[in-house]
Amino acid sequence: MLNEASRAVRDVPTTVIFPVMYSFVGIAYFAFWLAVALYVFSCKEKATKNTPENLIEYFGFTYIDVTFNKDLQNALIYHLLCLVYLAQVISYFGFMVLAGVFADWYFSIWNSSQSRKIRGYGTGELSGSPVCESLFRVLRFHLGSLALGALVVTPVRLIRWILMSIKRSTQNAQNGATRCIFGCTNCCLQCLECLLDKINQEGFILTSIYGTNFCQSSFVAVKLIYTNVLRTALLEGISHYIEFFGRITIAAVTTGICLTVFSLDNYFRDNLSSVLSPGIAVFVIAYIIGSLFMLVYEVAVDTIFLCYLIDEQTHPNGPKFAHEDLAKMANKHKNSLTRKKVTLANYNRENKTLSSFLQASCTLVFLLLSTIFSLLLKSKRNKKYNHQQKKGIDIFFLNYLFCMRCLHQAFHFKAQILKQNLHYVCLLQQSFRSNESIIFAVFLCSSLECYVEEIYTKFHNYSNNTHYCYE
Fold this sequence. Notes:
This is Choline transporter-like protein. By secondary structure, the chain is mostly helical.
């Protein structure tokens, strides 16, 4: 998929320049926002007042009192909300323009040697200026989708920022339980924000392909990814780390070259007292520029992968628009998944053994890790907290984990396991004196066992229809 993205970028080189030009739009909007904020903050009200009697001979009978307008200063909160919201809209705008370019590229016809797409304005041909055409389509038809997608993510982000600001302002008055509540809440909100952002991006790709509305495109994209969840997870994991190392490599190589020049050139060696400050500045600038260029590959990989899934779903006999190397690799992987056909009884027996092995292994690993963690936590906690704070931490962890486990079991209607967990908590509280790490391990292992059981059940139900073993 990365090779396919590289072909797309080579075939449409203007996509590399677009993020640089597009970043000026964000800079211009931020400059406009900052100017408006300064004007609003500096608005003044003038009022004529009488001069005190002892100062009349120096200043006259009246003077002008100038005060800042508090109402307009309070309105800066709404101005800040507009900044966050419109910044997200601008970010999605650039993403959707690039997604439209790569979607057009994928569904265009290859030349005879499959080295480039055929350029022209005929049916199935790639236009001469795909970036301009995608830009026009987004401006003409899809601004409402961008606004709705940003409206979904922005409230979650604002709530998370507000909670973090409250946490920083009350840092000295917090105990262990309060910090844990803030940390757990921030983690949940950040996961929700990441999930909504990913759904929005996939929906924008579908909108670029079909031209449908945002809600319908997001629903179809989630359904398509859910049916190919293994391939999606593998691609996302690999591409994420490759893109991250690409950014770091670009920044590190650029910084190394600059530091070498600073060290060898006589002018810099005589006029610079230290190369640390310019080195840090070069690294930051190079990382930002590298992120802009790697963003093109990130959008290309996501778009081409989703286009391939649509192509594969539309043409059951084989993808029509994919490169032959990509089609061969995908068919080889698909054949390896369905190579072994077994009976239903053997399939059930093998997966029962596998699920039991996973349960036992996970239980052993997490209990071992939790024991080490509990010893480290106990040694550090005794030096940091007094008796009341330690007791509060223990009670909070106990109640929090038990509530999470209760919600999980109540959702899946497993009352018997719920009663067993309550019994486990009572025993552990008496035996280990509310050691939250061991209690956490028990709940985690129990939850993991339920998840393994659910996965096995889903595969079991699926095997009733297919009778295939996916390895």
